[in-house]
Amino acid sequence: MDVSARSKRARVCSGCVVLCACQTSFPSSPVCDSRPLAPAFSLSLSLSLSLSASGSLTQSRLCPGGRSRRLQLQRRSRRCCGSSSRRRRRRRRCCYCCCSIGGLQCKDATDLMERFNLSGLQRSLMRQAVFPVWRGIGAGNGVGGGWSQGWGRCLRWETDSPGPKPRIPIFDYPVWLVRCQGGRARLIEVCQRGRGAIRLPTDMLSIKLPRLYDIHQVPKVFREDGIISGYRHPQSSALDCVLSSFQMTNETVNIWTHFLPTWYFLWRFSVLCSTLNFLSDSYTWPLLVYMLLICVYPFTSSCAHTFSTMSPESRHICYFFDYGALSLYSLGCAISYGHYVIPDSWVNSWLQQHFVTIAVGNSVFCTSLSCYSRFLELQFPQRSKVLRTGAFVVPFVFDTAPLFYRILLCCGGSCSPSDALSSHCYHLFFACLTCFLFTSHLPERLAPGRFDYIGHSHQLFHISAVVGTHFQMEGVITDMLSRRVLFMAQGATASLAGTVGALALGLLLNLGVIGVFSAPLLRQAGAAGPAAAPPAPARCERKEQ
Questions:
Q1: N or C terminus: fewer CB in 10 A for the chain?
Q2: Range with the lowest mean pLDDT among 287-291, 412-416, 535-539?
Q3: pTM of the model
């Protein structure tokens, strides 16, 4: 390709691309009818560059008609430039493209589209394939122009003869890079291999958000009742899963409604750490365990919803950890209720002494039953829903039994209402609402497809659960501060084994249950191998093509 001299050529770092240039305006002359010509825009058939794996230029060839087009531009330059001295100066400044579409001269890509009456698909492909490399003199900051999007790091100029390194030419016209068919895949391939002396700029390979699919385009294991669209690819990469949290899918609100409350609970926990002595005051240890777990369970749920579309096996395993975090949260509720919320008549009773021990068993039962229900989801969806709901209802009923009894006593006039009881009542209301939303699948069941992105039951379920946890936290903190004298007077102090030790035991047991249920899935995924991973549905592939 001729740029300023025949001995110079362009070297492109990687990718299958075509380097083109827009001609500068010719000077006024009788031949040109005293009107400067607009820059000529040439498209991807102008020059074909064949690149090796390392990204260096190995061959350049003219497309059909390219030689005649170049000669035509040279003759036009001679006619416009006039005298021989001006012609020599003009030759040094011109950069000839090997071919242009029909010899038309266009101001930019939009002008080119209008002249050829391109369709919407052709316009879209052109916008993706053509972008500027050099802004030209006067087009950018400074007199000398400049490279666009960091392309100065990707192009260098060489001479065939030995000698000093040539100076990068300064163009007074825009230079465009046209990516030919398969160029993007080639660019990505060479970048991943890490070959070539010159690296591509990061903004060249722009990150695009993953595309979304309808319910008939994803496997059955990924489908949700009443949700028609907004599904992510069933074989998404970890990066695609993270990027999907920043685009509107049917999981986006689920992710953020538990990710943002995590930071709120962490902030409340940090405030308590600055006002209470969690290290030496054993009375605060149940609150310490409870605050840790209300920070863990929404974060685990957010991660499970984020990475649940990497594969069918990863979907099950992600939700296994989600169920385990919820089970540990129920254990934290039991530890705090057994030390702060329990009625006065139950203090130092047999139930209080064994309350935490039974809660550890309930957490293991909850994780086991909820994980097992996922294996019945495809064949017996109703049975799976019943088992999963029962797995969380059982520990909830056991944990709140002291609270229910205390509320009944206050309703009978045996105690006076307090701020803690009002917070606990709000928590019970939102807990019942959460259970209703989880089991009913309303409102998307009444209008499938209307609530795919915003307003379906799982999003409302998340919001209701977080609000209920907030009121529960306020009630537990109020009871802890107001009933300290009562518990200390009766010698009902918390022990390290009954708080932190119970949490550690419950964590180990739940991780063991998750490992037992995850092992067959991991073996199945390992036996299939990455090459035999289930592909996207055929209809999805046809639509992509």
A1: C
A2: 535-539
A3: 0.63
